[in-house]
């Protein structure tokens, strides 16, 4: 497994161009720099990055064009995922025919209690997937109902530990979601965030969590919502291993770069996960985790920088027209 993960990280690392690295100021790498690289190369690379990624837009009117009327007909998801393991406590699933994906993150604090911290996350995703597979073909999935049923089944099995979770589905032309804790998602339109989940936390680094005990978060407290989707939208679903280490504006720039280069969902998920992996291990730059951490009394020192090493799960879904496909994943 370790050898496989090293090969996977090297493969992902090769997909993260030097231009992207320079543009975001991330110097450390998941694998060694190519032999013979020169510092002087950064002038050319940085110029390429500026052209490719473009300047950030402060005024939405500078970037938005008049939207054409949305065509009739159902939309579907074409998705792929990337999972970079740290403690192997994340889990996720997807079912293209049903138009639904889900991600869960086991609460690592259970490790110190001698409990399998991945158990509840895996149980949630396994049971959600089983519910989708057993449904009548063509059924539109309600994320909140699916999360509720998966939670009841996981609790009934006496599964230990706890987990955050998010489920996103496409039903007709509506993108729907339900989430608990800090596993989340972002919807991109024309390279910019249209909607972004906001984490549920009791306090810094202590998210709401689903569990078997009575002291856990009730599914009724899940954040639910929907938005009308358009063909060409991109949905990114991930655990806090992604969102703790990559700023929203960085995700936007990666999406714009990937779109310009014709990335597939697999390419996009690997680049996002690889970038999050590197940012998590950098100590000389800010991340969402360090910015929020400095707001805590115990971490008020300006020297608190860097990311948060963690399991990283990224699911990237492209919203397209046409009939459903039969591809599916469960991990």
From TrEMBL:
The keyword Chaperone does not apply. It catalyses: O-phospho-L-seryl-[protein] + H2O = L-seryl-[protein] + phosphate; O-phospho-L-threonyl-[protein] + H2O = L-threonyl-[protein] + phosphate. Its EC number is 3.1.3.16. It comes from the Eukaryota. It is an enzyme of class 3 (hydrolase). The keyword Acyltransferase does not apply. Gene3D superfamilies: PPM-type phosphatase domain (3.60.40.10). Residues 75-319 form the PPM-type phosphatase domain. GO terms for molecular function: metal ion binding; protein serine/threonine phosphatase activity. Keywords: Hydrolase, Magnesium, Manganese, Metal-binding, Protein phosphatase. Its cofactor is Mg(2+); Mn(2+). InterPro entries: PPM-type-like_dom_sf (IPR036457), PPM-type_phosphatase-like_dom (IPR001932), PPTC7 (IPR039123). SUPFAM superfamilies: PP2C-like. Belongs to the PP2C family. This is Protein phosphatase. It comes from Paspalum notatum var. saurae. The lineage of its organism: Eukaryota, Viridiplantae, Streptophyta, Embryophyta, Tracheophyta.
């Amino acid at each position: 497994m370790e050898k496989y993960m090293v090969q996977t990280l090297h493969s992902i690392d090769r997909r993260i161009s030097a231009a992207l690295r320079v543009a975001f100021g991330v110097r450390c790498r998941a694998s060694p720099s190519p032999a013979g690289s020169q510092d002087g190369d950064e002038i050319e690379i940085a110029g390429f990055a500026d052209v490719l990624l473009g300047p950030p837009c402060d005024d939405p009117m500078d970037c938005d064009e008049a939207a054409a009327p949305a065509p009739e007909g159902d939309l579907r998801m074409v998705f792929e995922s990337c999972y970079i393991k740290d403690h192997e406590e994340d889990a996720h699933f997807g079912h293209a025919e049903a138009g639904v994906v889900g991600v869960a993150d086991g609460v690592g604090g259970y490790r110190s209690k001698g409990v399998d911290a991945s158990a509840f996350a895996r149980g949630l995703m396994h049971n959600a997937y089983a519910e989708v597979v057993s449904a009548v073909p063509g059924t539109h999935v309600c994320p909140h109902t699916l999360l509720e049923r998966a939670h009841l089944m996981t609790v009934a099995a006496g599964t230990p530990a706890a987990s955050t979770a998010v489920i996103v589905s496409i039903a007709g032309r509506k993108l729907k979601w339900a989430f608990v804790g800090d596993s989340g998602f972002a919807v991109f339109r024309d390279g910019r965030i249209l909607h972004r989940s906001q984490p549920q936390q009791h306090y810094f680094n202590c998210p709401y969590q689903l569990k078997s005990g009575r002291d856990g978060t009730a599914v009724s407290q899940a954040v639910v919502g929907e938005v009308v989707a358009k063909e060409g939208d991109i949905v990114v679903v991930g655990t806090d291993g992604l969102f703790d280490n990559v700023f929203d504006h960085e995700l936007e720039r990666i999406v714009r770069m990937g779109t310009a280069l014709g990335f597939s969902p697999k390419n996009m998920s690997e680049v996002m996960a690889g970038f999050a992996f590197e940012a998590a291990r950098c100590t000389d730059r800010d991340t969402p985790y360090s910015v929020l951490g400095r707001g805590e009394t115990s971490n008020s020192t300006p020297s608190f920088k860097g990311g948060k090493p963690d399991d990283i799960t990224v699911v990237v879904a492209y919203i397209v027209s046409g009939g459903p496909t039969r591809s599916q994943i469960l991990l």
